[in-house]
Design a protein that fits this description.
Largest sheet: 6 strands, parallel
Radius of gyration: 24 Å
Strand order of the largest sheet: 3-1-4-5-6-7
Structural class: alpha/beta
Number of helices: 19
Number of strands: 16
Oligomer: single chain
Distance between the termini: 66 Å
Shape: globular
Length: 569
Amino acid sequence: MTTKAPSEGRLFRILLIKPSHYDEDGYVIQWRKAFMPIHVLAVVRGILDDITARGALPAGVRLETRGLDESSTVIDRAALLRWLGKADRGLVMMVGVQSNQVPRAIDIGETFTKAGSPVAMGGFHVSGCMAMVPDWEPAFSGLRAAGFTLYAGEFEEHAAAFLRDAWEGTLKPLYNHLDTSTDMATAPLPDVASNLETNTLRPVAGLDVGRGCPFVCSFCTVINVHGRKMRQRNIPSLRNHLLALRDQGVKELLIVDDNFARNPSWREMFDLFVELRDTQGVAFELLIQTDTQAHRIPGFVEMAARAGCLRVYIGVETLNVSNLGDAGKPQNRNLDRVKEGVIAWKRAGVLSICSYIVGFPGDTRDSVRADMAYLKRELPFDLFYVYILTPLPGSEDHKKAVAAGLPMDHDLNNYDAQHVVLQHPIMNKEEWVALYHDMVDWFYEPDHLETLFKRAMAHGVSIKDVVMFSAAVYATYKVHKLHPLEGGAFRRRIRTDRRPGLPQEPALPFHARELARGFLNATHYLGIYARFGWIYLRARRAFRATGGYSDAALTLPSHPSREDVRQSA
């Protein structure tokens, strides 16, 4: 693409793309409606809006931006090239790119670099690799060949200088700002309208009220990009932002902080949600992420429920003592306390989601099955997500694997916590993958589903949400073979947009297969929802017949330690 010289005009267009990644057949994972919002687009647009408002660009330059989330939007490269070509300068920014999205980002971006438009990429892959393993060759080789500018670190403090370079045509190959942490109290808030750019099933928006996490989990990339020091938003500016979101029709907020319980201003933020509901009629449904010990913070669970928290995502990760030591999660060793926390959330009427990882060095099929039996019997979680342990670039696990020279998969598309990319000391690849899929079946088997539903009814957790979300989670795992956080409604495949190296299929067989696949998937979905609904009706009849429900998982523990629990299990 040829751009006009800056002297001929002053329009600067920036295209923001959050790429998806490829499925097993080489087609982009994309939906007509996504389950989750893509918050990073709103964050970057908010930063660009702030630059415009401050007049931080050269005099007379007018900034136009466009944001695209590929998980729910078809990327029409020809049309976007034309859009950029009508500006005096154009820039493509691949934002929030995770390791598994790098191959797709390259394939999209090369269209623009070959046409003469600069492409920059930031996100956890670039930042994590630069922080931990900048010499790992697979991390950057394709990006350098594609001619990308790489950006490491948080964007807020250096965005204006970066955009001035882009406007002047003097972008550097690398911007490394990992040594700078953003002051979240004064940082621009996400662009309100951009929160709705993702086509989601529900009017939901993301919001980062803080950054950082004090823990040292070896598989985590957050602590090596955002740091371990907690930073938080300014309450008055947050209040105005929430009112603006209300005006946009947002009803549900995903608090994207990695661990909201460790935000120093959590109490003031919960108070803000309560005040807005009581005085302004602004009632958001909140989804937050916390650690297993959040209930030990006085008043945290109770205030979360008052503020509108309906769902909480809790990182359990594993029940195995040796695994917890390897993972740097000693805070999870006492399962009595973990159980106390889950019960506290349930008694507050908050749906709890267990995040679990399979494939730690101490895992075997027998040990994992025993741990799953304990989890189902003793820990009353409402939903269950499982991941394959993946040494994500940017994590301590990945750094150690590179240093040890362990053979790892060099196809970054597979670093999605659903593929095996590193050899396990005990299980082979096939056993590991089979165990991953079996864990979903073990948790969502009919008898345990009935138990889940009766536990929810006993403590006022929204039974509608438990039934619908559990069916959606199970269906995404089993029908699409994808993690629920990548899920959506009505899968879309574009015949002409397949991973390079794979042939473009003839139109008639492709569309005939997709039509048949869509019909079979819809039938499978309806079968799952019908089965879950029937199990709910059975649970409701039993609950009403007995006048309530209780079991060991709903009873506060009396034994003092995790080790005692495991010996008696």
